[in-house]
């Protein structure tokens, strides 16, 4: 006798096809299918039309002491300068601009400040215009519209308007600094009680002021401290398992971390596939049970064909629903390969090893079958959507806990807990994928696949029994309780 | 022909089949064999075990004891595509059109795609549902949807039809249409088993009746045999006061009618002709003498009425005992 349930491929395909087309014809499917394109369209639209999602705030500093406003503005410009530097050194600029272009922008930054540097970037590489929004300041400083706080209140409330950038505007915020006998006192005034940019800037300024004052007591200066820190000892990471001719090139680079992020991404993808697919199976099963169509189908098909047909149909549907995301990821990967950091692009390409792809496929299939069969069985036992929701809660909690192995795998790939999770069938699909970049022993991977495979077979068999019992007896959990009482507890 | 050969050729045979749910017997020791080309009315009150028997016959649920043979073998792959099954509870995929529903079931039963859609169109045209071809099932009336489901069950032209309550929930016009479909199938020599509560349909369509009561077969025979089990009734009237006294020795039950006549249920051994002869001998001048044709409904009530009442009584006692415990 075969361990695998007998199936007729033609009938299984027909059931899969009907389930697939049944979902494809719904509005919900097309909304989620087109969602990434719509999102991308909005992003491009916003960038092209120069729409401000979070427009800068027009704020002012009313400094009655006359000692701090200038320092705060200088700190603001310093922060803007750092933003541009990061863009050039580690951000998009580092990936897409040539060294010459970056040098010329740096020169402008040093000579004319951050605003001029941004204009220079736009000039040397106009395609980056949309990306420069991230460098914009969230605060536009304006001159105080009045000489006292009381007079400024009308501007803050919007009762009086000030002129800025060619438009009449309300004053979004005001930093009010006064001198008391205990020292300077700062208050931040704004209608928007959640606004904090100027408040934080002022806090940073006063913090550095306190630091400068403290250092001065010892005859030191902040610049001297910064200079001393420049000579600090840098600690580099090395990986002894990295294949290289000499130890110096065994240093850990950003590219070495790429496989872990790829595995994490695949693990999340697998989880999303399992989660969304399993829910579709549950509702599909429940709909057919309530429709009373199953009984008619069972006169010409096997239980196993219906189960596998549903698994196949919903799997195809899930992959179709994921196709736009995969397509966009593919486009992004090609973009990085063509225009980005060649080291990262190479690492990305090398991450997709045959081993990763084979085990990803195995665990995607097994994980989907395992959880899908569980949800089919629960759908067969449910009498209503409420029933289904309450019965699936425990399994959803388990599934949610299982995805926590992904951050664990990124931070501690050698964790014993992760190793255990990769052998525990419920979490194995996600744990194994995230472990792959750290090259675990092959026997562990095979053992994990075998354990999950056996459990999946058992679940399919049990789902068939539950399906037969739940669908044809027309009963729900009460029938299972009755069976448990009679068979296990021997109660009549 | 040996018994074994006959059994193997018969579309369905059940031998001492029993099934319990939750310790309660739903079907008890049921045996019958259905011959090729028969049209069988599978009758019985609610809870008599008809649907459970049909499900066991199709192999949807296994019997606890006994043996089921479908086309001479254990129900399964062998019977796929050879059976047209319409379950008691109805349903269609709401978003499919009528032709898609019929074609889908036909394809599951082995018909190729192109042929399945052609068949669906032909059947819908033939049974007056042309306008529903591209209509979604959710937009159809109940009668229309029920006809579409029946067509889905029969499109592949099976050898053996099992129709569980095909007439339930339909208006008289649609019942007549459905009856026409069943008659047409029967006319092609196909084997049909259908369960129904409407005795008139069984009376008009069936060669044989299998009657179930409280999980057991209480009658299995021709329609004529079933009718002979019905009490014989007559209506008799006269202005003579002696009529009641003269009729009483022949009657099981006598009721006075509003028009002054008597409704008489005859004893098992009595004949209406004998009542007439006695009245003539007694010189009673009759104003009405009308022997009534027995109906299957009366036979049904006579055959299962006591069983049903006894069963209900026993269930009530069990419930009471449980509550007291």
Short description:
The complex is a heterodimer of chains A (492) and B (325). With 492 residues, chain A is α/β, with parallel strands linked by helices. Chain A has 20 helices and six strands.
Mean pLDDT of chain A: 84
Q: How many whole angstroms does the radius of gyration of chain B measure?
A: 24 Å
Q: What's the main sheet of chain A like?
A: 4 strands, mixed
The total of beta strands of chain B comes to: 13
How are the strands ordered across the major sheet of chain A? Answer: 2-1-5-6
**Quaternary organisation of the protein chains:** heterodimer
Q: Give the biggest beta sheet of chain B.
A: 6 strands, mixed
Q: Structural class of the helices, strands and pairings of chain B?
A: alpha/beta
What's the number of helices of chain B?
11
The largest chain-to-chain contact, stated as pair and per-chain residue counts, equals: A-B, 29 and 32 residues
Summed up, the helix count of chain A is: 20
Mean pLDDT of chain B: 84
Q: In angstroms, what separates the terminal alpha carbons of chain B? A: 57 Å
Taking all Cα atoms into account, the compactness measure Rg of chain A is 31 Å
Helical proportion of chain B, percent range: 25-40%
Account of the 3D structure:
The complex is a heterodimer of chains A (492) and B (325). Chain A has 492 residues and is of the alpha/beta class. Chain A is built from 20 helices and 6 strands. By secondary structure, chain B is of the alpha/beta class. Chain B contains 11 helices and 13 strands. In chain B, a hairpin with a 5-residue loop joins strand 11 and strand 12 (262-266). In chain B, helix 3 (98-108) packs across helix 4 (113-126) and helix 3 runs parallel beside helix 5. The longest helix of chain B has 29 residues, at 296-324. Chains A and B meet through helix 1, helix 10, helix 11 and helix 20 of A and strand 5, helix 3 and helix 5 of B.
